[in-house]
Design brief:
The chain has about 525 residues and is α/β, with parallel strands linked by helices. It contains 14 helices and 20 strands. The strands form 5 sheets. Strands 2-1-3-10-11 form a 5-stranded mixed β-sheet, covered by helices on one side. It has a 5-stranded mixed beta barrel with strand order 13-14-17-18-20. A hairpin with a 3-residue loop joins strand 5 and strand 6. Helix 1 crosses helix 4 and helix 10 packs across helix 11. The termini are far apart. The protein binds iron/sulfur cluster. The site of iron/sulfur cluster has 14 residues, from helix 5.
Amino acid sequence: MREWNYGKNMNLFKESLVELITQTSTNLPPDVRAAMGLALEDETPHTQAAQALAIIAANIDMAQADEGPVCQDTGMPTFVVHTPVGVNQITLKKAIHAAIEEATKSGKLRPNSVDSLTGKNSGNNLGEETPVIHFEQWEEDEIEVKLVLKGGGCENKNIQYSLPCSLDHLGRADRNLEGVRKCLLHAVWQAQGQGCAPGALGVCIGSDRAHGYELAKGQLFRTLDDVNPNPVLARLEAEIMEEANTLGVGAMGFGGKVSLIGCKITAANRLPASFFVSVAYDCWAFRRLGVRLNAETGAITNWLFRDPKQQVRRMAKQEGFPLTGREVVLRPPIAEETIRNLKVGDVVLITGEVFTGRDAVHAHLMKNAPPVDLRGSVLYHCGPVVLKQDGKWVVKAAGPTTSSREEPYQADILRRYGVRAVIGKGGMGAKTLAALQECGAVYLNAIGGAAQFYARSIEEVLDVHLIEFGIPEAMWHLRVKDFAAIVTMDAHGNSLHAGVEKETGAALAALSR
Ligand code: SF4
């Protein structure tokens, strides 16, 4: 057996892995760009979904041009590594850890590793079982490292079905391919805009609960345009793509023509008593790349899923947000009357001071007074990537996070502290809608994943509070200019999200056989 002499080339291995992480975080692969390009072409012009896709396209370009994270949520880094026999996987793991730490320091990854018992963020993306690394041996001479960065919003929309079961709008799903078909249509429907649609499904039919999810995630390493070698699964994939795109979820769940950009299915043997369908839902910010490394030197010999010699094509047809002149300018502190004049569908441009706050801040505010006066304020559900440069905080990526997680808290916070506008993505529920109406407040949907686009709206970090919660969870005090968002829940009891969920539910029911 060949002795693997890795130590002397440790640095080159690490550098190659940093490059893999950087490209994965900042530069979407060509198959995803192509699928999003088709989504842009297919969507009805001048709709909210078309506006969302225009921002997404601009964001993809900005991320690549400036090497900034496509989305601020760089997820749980998940590596699949194949090594020749004889390669020391322990030292390779150390190189991966060193690369993760460096990429976090330079802002290509957001510090995302939180101790589940204490809630403390490790700050460097290292911790118990993070990052996730799967090792396999193979008989080739090179090392292959594949990486997927999948954020929390879409990870939370993963779903596992145990057949037979009963599904909303579709009725009974039996232990057969028709039952699987129903589960997959349901998986797209239940995600709505919370997983930053249009999304993609990685699916495993069978296996056990734990391995089924792993195999489902593994399907995300297929390119969106490949064809399943199994003709039965190829047919099912094509059928799901066609039917799911009649549901009308649309970009960001705004309602629209494109809800799904990929469906990749595998099947594994199961126990006679179990029939699981495991679904890994990924968002439009589908970040997946890979490299082949020279096993002696650590140098990159080849890229997977991209050709670095190919020029990257621009996605956006225009710069920035498509303005119509009908946008409403909001300058915090905002008067109740201004908010009560807004209605679902209005586009606003916020200029002035906003505060970020997500899970930890919301939980904190239930028991403690806010560190700032929130009357008339704008509260942004956002966990940004922020770096300290020359003694100053600089925002590197700052898209919205999924708001539904704050549903248990939001109504109380609106009532207690006088917040006038909440920015997030994916919408909120009935309790929040009632509080918006009662208090004269509004919910604004920003475009999920558009982290570079929104970072450019942030002129300055004015202050930070509750930094002990870690960078993504702290309360950042920001000054923004022309921050664009769409009113999707107004102070009159209207919710675009509730409307789309109802309409798409009817469309789902129509696909029941
Ligand atoms: S695009 Fe949306 S779902 Fe995807 S990682 Fe970013 S915030 Fe999460």
